[in-house]
Amino acid sequence: MEKTLQNILGEIRRTNAPLSPDALDRIIRARNREVAGPVRYVAKKKLLPFYQKAKEHRPEQWRTWGVSPAEEALLVRTLQVKPRRTASGVATVTVLTKPWPCSSACLYCPNDVRMPKSYLHDEPACQRAERNWFDPYLQVTARLHTLHQMGHVTDKVELIVLGGTWSDYPETYQIWYMHELFRALNDMRRETTVGRESETRREQYQNAGIACEREDLTDWAAEAQARVTAGDASYNETVRNLYACRTRADDSRLRTQTDDRNTTTDNALANCTTIGDTQKADPESVAPEDPQDAAPRNGWAAAAQWQTATFPQLEALQRENKSAEHRCVGLVVETRPDAVTPKRLAMLRRLGCTKLQMGIQSLDERILAANHRGIGVDRMQQAFEFARIFGFKTHAHFMTNLLGATPEGDAADYHRMVEHPAFKPDEIKLYPCALVDGTGLVSHWRDGSWRPYTEQELVNLLAGDVLVTPPFTRISRMIRDISAHDIMTGNKKVNLRQLVDLELAKRAQPVQEIRSREIAFGAAANDELSLSEVAYETTNTHEVFLQWVTPDNRIAGFLRLSMPNADYVNAHAADLPINAGEAMIREVHVYGRVAGLHQGGENAQHRGLGRTLIERACDIARENGYTAINVISAIGTRGYYRKQGFTDNGLYQQRSL
Questions:
Q1: Within its chain, how far is the Cα of 441 from the centroid?
Q2: Which has more pLDDT, 603 or 242?
Q3: What's the CA gap between 333 and 326, in Å, rounded?
């Protein structure tokens, strides 16, 4: 392994550049030919971990290699695995919450009792979660360790929390979950702490009798899963029993949540703390659960007793994260539109959230009803309006090929989504419906009332959707990570997006959608970039999308400026954390390979592009009569915004105009 590294370093020194994949492969193959034996001796994925381990644990040996910082950077670039993981500017870490009863029963939704509703245990993120008992600390530290070994910079982290409807979980679990996410980030600088804490947690779950190995989990859930798949038991009741979810408080909450979701009279500022360092939350703001409900019934009930935290404990870790080596620069949760209320949005801000993923699926009332969605378009519009006015980025899940849909109808439905002023999401997960056993859609497939679109129908539809997507919207995904063996019929190709890109190339029409234009691994000099502004209206705001673009329209960075409608703010004043006359920066993002904190580089990050975007946004807001501007900053970006003249103010940071 050392000899191979020396050969690679020699070539890097000769060329003063990272090696191409072909050049690296030639060196590895040549070394493997030198070593006798039938088994491959050297593999690319093992080289960087070997180098990192030598540097950390055998420093004297490592120093004999004479690797300069510049050479090390080129070596990491050469050996990095899956560089796309951090090409958008941050290291993304996806975690899952534990299984929990769902407040809906959509026709197409998988019912895997080992997973939160709609997820399947063979999906990559689900496998990682299950191996770690759905523990947020274990999931984050394990994933960051893997990314580090793959050669990625991980000091700027976007946390994505999946698992159905976030607010369906008890508040104590929500606070604990976020507490452990931040604890994991803060601990990453101390390897011994992470190792000791991880081992202690594993012992806790093992002592509670909770399995994490694939075969054990299959045996544990087999009988219950068979009953659910056959329709002899419901997902909700089965999950309640398996994970000891039922409590008197939970039963009451689920019975009344329909009314609660339509109530917006709660003051969103009640019990809210500032994002500064001095004020504390009232620990009584989270009602304790009935102690009788916490009596252990199985291992998960025992785990629930230590899966609790208070807001003061969470806020202490958030304050530490503001200057930590691994900072949270974005925090995303998944929810349903009918769970979006001012009170819950205020809660999410206290937790540190900056983006909402919302399951929309369709804007056709007929399709929604046929698929038992249980949410109307009016409620979806209200959710978007609340999310925007609170400053959240909106990430909509949208599905094609639902029961009752046609390619033509889906195209019109998507067009409405991206053009109607009530919606216009910032990001979209656009994917086809997949038929999974145990869902209500199976009977419709068998009787012929539903069929999957052909590959060409699907590719044509998605290509058309991309072409009508505006320049301020990013299509983040086009497939779910569902294993082919779990899909009974329909698209099983994991390269669906590539097929769509090939179709777009044939049409030779300009694509404005963000992901297609990201500068990613490229580099552009500042004098090659121009600042473009795209203004658009929503039902309750005037939005301006500011973007740095190259001459060929590649995007190097952007800012989302939101200027709320004064009449809307005044009409909802009792529920909102902002006042009339206050604009909002909802997102600032600069692309390129992740640059380490306080480090420069050849990519777009750390070249003043973000600062210029902020100054221009302030000018626009001032020109439009706004007297202050807020920013929905993540915990780890608050120091940056303080340097830009923002001060802590309630749920946001604010700058006077």
A1: 28
A2: 242
A3: 20
For residue 273, what pLDDT is reported? Answer: 41
Instruction: Find, among 396, 397, 285, 287, the residue nearest to 346 by Cα.
Output: 285
* Residues sharing a CB contact under 8 Å with residue 127, sequence separation 6 or more, in sequence order: 121
DSSP β-bridge partners for residue 287? none
Measure the CA–CA gap between 637 and 606, rounded to whole angstroms: 13
Query: 611-617: long-range contacts at Cβ-Cβ below 8 A with a sequence spacing of 24 or more?
Result: 611/644, 612/531, 613/531, 613/546, 613/548, 613/557, 613/558, 613/559, 613/588, 614/559, 614/585, 614/588, 614/644, 616/531, 616/546, 616/559, 617/544, 617/546, 617/559, 617/561, 617/583, 617/585
Q: What is the pLDDT of residues 575-632, one digit of tens each?
A: 999 999 999 999 999 986 544 444 444 444 456 899 999 999 999 999 999 999 999 9
Strands 530-537 and 541-549: antiparallel
Cβ contact 26:4 at 8 Å:
no
> Do residues 140 and 93 make contact, with C-beta atoms less than 8 angstroms apart?
yes
Pairing mode of beta strands 555-564, 582-590? antiparallel
pLDDT surpasses 50 at 262: no
Q: In angstroms, rounded to a whole number, what is the distance separating the alpha carbons of residues 410 and 548?
A: 32
Write the CB contacts of 251 (distance below 8 Å, at least 6 apart in sequence). none
Whole-number Å distance between alpha carbons of 131 and 263: 39
Helix (H, G, I), strand (E, B) or coil at 305: helix
Q: Read off the pLDDT of residues 72-88 as tens digits, 9 standing for 90 and up.
A: 778 877 776 665 555 55
The listed range with the strongest mean pLDDT (43-47, 63-67, 68-72, 503-507) is 503-507
Edge-to-edge strand ranges of the sheet holding 327-335: 91-96, 156-162, 327-335, 355-361, 393-400, 427-432, 474-477
Alpha helices in 474-537 (DSSP H): 496-507, 514-517
Torsion angles phi and psi, residue 552, rounded to 5: -95, 20
Residue 272 banded pLDDT, cuts 50, 70, 90: very low
Query: What's the predicted TM-score (pTM) here?
Result: 0.83
Instruction: Give the pair of three-digit tokens for residue 457.
Output: 């129908």
Q: Using only C-alpha atoms, what is the Rg of the chain?
A: 25
Tell me the pLDDT band of 296, cut-offs 50, 70 and 90: very low
